[in-house]
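Suppose a colleague, Dr. K., hands you the sequence of a protein chain of 739 amino acids and asks what its three-dimensional shape might be. Before reaching for any lab equipment, you can write down a predicted structure in token form. Begin with the sequence itself:
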Amino acid sequence: MVRRRIAVLLAVAAVLAATVAFSTGGAGATAPRAASKGTSPGITFSAPFVVDTVHTYGEPDLRVDPSTNARQYVSGPWGTGTQRSIWNFSEDGGRTYHPIHDTALTSADGSDTRHVGPGGGDTEISVSHSGKVYYSDLAALVTLKTAVWDPTANPRTLTTGFYGNSDQGANGVDRQWFGLWDPPADQVEAIRSATGYKGPLPVNYLVYAEALLGCCEAASYSTNGIDYTGPTEEFSINSDGPVVVDQKTGTVLEAVGLGSPNAVGVAILTRDAGQPNSPAIANSQVKRVANLPAGTDVGALFPTIAIDSARNAYLVWVTRDDDHTVAQSASSWQIFYSYAKASTGWQTWSAPRQLSKPPSLTNIMPWSVAGSGGRLAAVWYGTNDGTHNPSSEDNHQAWDVYLSLVTNATSSNPDIRQTKVTPHPMHYGTICLAGTGCIASQGNRNLADFFEVYVDNTGAIEIAYDDTSNEFVQHVPQGPGIPPPIDGAADHRGAPVVTMIRQNSGPGLFGTDVKGLRSGGDSLSDPKGDAHFDPIYNTTTSIKQLDLLGFDVRVDPDHPDTMVVRIPVNDLHNLAAAVTATGGDTVNYVARWSGAPIPDATTGTKIPIYYASVEVGSSGTPTFFAGTAISYELCSVSGCFPHVIDYPGPGNGGTAVPGKVTFIQPDKGQGNWFIIRVPRSLVGNPAVGSRLDSMGVYTYARSRSATQPITNAEAQGGILPIAIDGVCCINTILRETAH
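The predicted structure, expressed as tokens, is then:
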């Protein structure tokens, strides 16, 4: 133990003291001047919002509609076994989300994640200035499902299509990236004049790896989001990364990894100027930006790229080193950035600068976004464990989301400020970095391959990440679950709860201070009239009995062993009408939150998800129960892990508790409350003054009671509780006061 502590201290000292030698553009080594570093003053974040309280998935994409902050999108793979991915849509600024599906629901017996065609793999999103959304969904490394969603259309429709790589036969498709050329309408005429381009706009570029018999990275394009032409250009690299588009010229820039020696680089993709009507990529130049420290590469897991409003491009990457820990090599597992200006044609890149610093010792999965000129935000998963390989050595190390905000990023002395974003660790243990090879190495790949940072229309930083700290494994009724070892060939612990967190104060990426939702308190409110059954297609009819108005929570001072959760609802008269309106068997009202870390006999520490619930069946009589949430596993190319979270009733994992319905002003239809009295012992014994993270309340329509287990066949088919309304989220402070 003493030796391990000394090693950690040495790792911290090494990271602080190291000057890492890179060589830029293949030339001699350059030692950059030290930049100003610190903790971002005044930057704070909201409570984490739970994107999906039922479906879980890794590597969440994140996009904000450029025409309104209200519409936001998060997506990710749900597995080849399900042949579908989850595409979540928010119309309230990212506070609550619902899965997009291709057919309007008629009852709770349907699936709210259904969309026709093969899929279930990598997802990608882009959103045009008109609000139109372009999707893609990878199917078994062979084809892509393509789709277009227009939330402004009446009626709304989800149109799907198919893309197969037609070049050279069965080349296959892997890890697709979108780049949307969609300049603002008031700039289009000037851009056409400057570039000579006469073709259609917007253009959605698709860049992907040829996974099977192909040789290369390949580029295609679409002008309608469904039908893609290409590949029109292919080029050789070692590893791929996301793309950005220079809106002034339509030039596509992709972050790439190169070899001999290992390096980070950029692929510069351009059209044929002699074909002014064609948006096709016709030329590629692969530019070596910086050779990496010996023994490292960028494969943890992708290098990333961003472009600011002044057209400066930024590469952000990690120095993965499978042979050394940070304690052994200070240049290993660190985050760096380099920039180039458009005036050089993105040919001249700066010497790399390090972004990561203690207590974030070992770092993986960087992502980046830029704002106004010289402003860059980079995020990554980081741990204070510097003595273990993050992919293969499970020390139950705690991981958090870190942010580096860089201002004056294109100067000789940028200001680099690091912030720990997450209110509690979002993962414990290893994070497998072998991609689909994780099944062979028996590593935990529940986080998948990346997470994303984005900027909203006010300049606020938004981050979509996964939280697996619940350490869930498959729920088996009347059984202990799957026995240890948890992380093996068959089963990986931890349901990846997709979570979004938004900057709510401090300087944003557009150079002005931003404001946002408060992060804490003991109550939260919600407007009337937003409890739509199938809110993807029905945005007019609200079910009063499922229309949440907020929540509050207290410890009862007269019964200090009891936590009281109150849920106001628009109208609690005739509760059976809610069941009839959804065509299901029951409806549930669920308050859910993440508790404090507790010891786990198998792994060391976990952060359970607790809940308090009301269920109403066709009789209209409510029952009340509480406990710890459970999960169900589905299997894919990287093994099995929890894909579904449920909030079970008595006999299925939950415990009956006292509760009642209260009408304060029944003659006016106001003051309708569910009151749930929860013994604190059922939900982790939270102390007065403690924090209940990401607390929210949701209503669901169910095909059958929460007292009965969901079968894995039902989960595989997406026949699961359907979210109706939600009030999300605050980090609730538990107080002992009377209501």
